[in-house]
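input
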Amino acid sequence: MAVVAGVMEQQKKPATLDALTQLLRADLDLVNLLIIERMQSPVALIPQLAGHIVAAGGKRLRPMLTLATARLCGYEAAPNERPRHVALAASVEFIHTATLLHDDVVDSSDLRRGLATANAVWGNKASVLVGDFLFSRAFQLMVEDGSLRVLEILSRASAVIAEGEVLQLVTSNDTATTEADYLEVISAKTAQLFAAAAQIGAVLCDRPAREEQALERFGRNLGIAFQLVDDVLDYSARQAELGKSIGDDFRDGKITLPIVLAFHRGNEEERAFWRRTLEQGEQREGDLETALELLRERGALRDSMARAAEYAEAARAELAIFPDKVEKRALDEVIDFCLERGY
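output
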């Protein structure tokens, strides 16, 4: 816990995304306009459904990584041309939004950020198909950019994300899942898009391989930290602030890192509890409270946050090779923001 304590000591005020958002305000406005433009279709259901999930909010964190790393690497748009980093940031957001639509169908989710999910309003078939449409729009933007390297990075990310979704499905409800197994899932499902979004900022500027690889690792470590904090938040009272109810992962039988740690540290009676509630799906009144007690007793939430802090510091270390600029300081605060959500 020394890493966690050290991180918290450094915080003199709550970390936010405000610095990054203000820095990128003009670019973000262009990204949002392009998203609205490209989600239009003569098939009326497409912009209705796509607009629903876009309007549901979200911090635009992944596209902001593309915008910020491009600026960190010195990107400047050619005169009278649409900035490439704007179009690629929109592509990143389309990939993310498409995966959210598909995730909510797979998870049978009714709420996202406190609002009804698209599948709850329009049904599963429409959500899957509009998700496919948004993936297609993402690839159109990649092709328009014209860089085979960018296309390689983002298309590979899309494939790896899909693999991560399938891997999560295969390991779902399996209490034999190890920490390595779960890290493999979130590295693919969550961290891959963070990594690609940050990496293409360097690619746009033809930066040396050393910088490109540093930004890829920065994004990957940040993405893993982000997901680990999400795992903890599902069992935290702070869920209410995010428009979610406590224990959704538990009710869905999801095997996240806190569960993995608690299961492997528990006695046979505790393991029988986890098998009944998560593998067999036999949940009774009071089971969530029991789960929360076991997670605390076995230090599973605390140690999951410690893991997140380690990945966050690894992400911070990757920024060290870049000069001290406002973009670097803003990205550094993003790391703190991702961690502080869990406290």
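quick obs: The mean pLDDT is 90.
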